[in-house]
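thread: overnight batch results

M.L. [08:02]
morning all. the overnight job finished for the chain we discussed friday. pasting input first so we're all looking at the same thing
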Amino acid sequence: MENGKIYTFKLNSGEELIAKIVEITRDNIIISEPVSIAPGREGMQMIPSMFTAEPGTKVTLNTNSISLSAMTDDSIKDKYIEATTGIKLPDKKIILG
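M.L. [08:03]
and the structure it wrote out:
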């Protein structure tokens, strides 16, 4: 894992969350802007993992509570960035001339 990258975590509770890694310590991973993945009417949706935390707060995730982790897929990463920053990234297209 690398600081500054966006990862998907599957927790021991079964919850899946996406977050940006800020710092990695021996027993914890400090993350920012965690969102949980939940089923909705239009398919899977991202919702804030912590509703009452101050926006922008760095959160400590204990490594003992993580069962799986992986880098987040690029298409999902773009949606995460849009959901957490409001910035819509342009579609990646190849220009042929």
